[in-house]
Amino acid sequence: MAGILQDYYDEFRMGYWADPDPKVCLCRGSGYALSDVDTWHECPIHFKKGQRHPEDPYPDEMPSPEEMKAVMDECNRNDPPEGEPCPSPEPYKPLTDDDIPF
After folding, report:
1. Are 44 and 72 within 8 A, CB to CB?
2. Which of helix, strand or coil describes residue 63?
3. Spatial CA neighbour of 51 closest among 30, 68, 35
4. Is the whole model's pTM more than 0.85, yes or no?
5. Strand ranges (E), the chain
6. 1 falls in which pLDDT band (50, 70, 90)?
7. How far apart are the first and last CA of the chain?
8. What whole-number distance in Å separates Cα of residue 11 and Cα of residue 5?
């Protein structure tokens, strides 16, 4: 039996909140709406295929494919310690306990 939050999530995911008028729609015409349980949902009316998720990094924050390849090539040349993965290029570096704000 699903809980109250699960029921809310399932109903929200169905898009009952969508409205053709962007001023009324919960997505405000952006294509995504944020629910009260902090989950993003595609708007069945305003979402466009290929649209970026609101929490995706912006293209200028992402390394180019060439930069990513250079970082990985450098890591592979220098053999990281046994059991340690190559570091991910920015902004995809693994978080440590010091990076978590709570």
Report:
1. no
2. coil
3. 30
4. no
5. 32-34, 40-42
6. very low
7. 32
8. 10
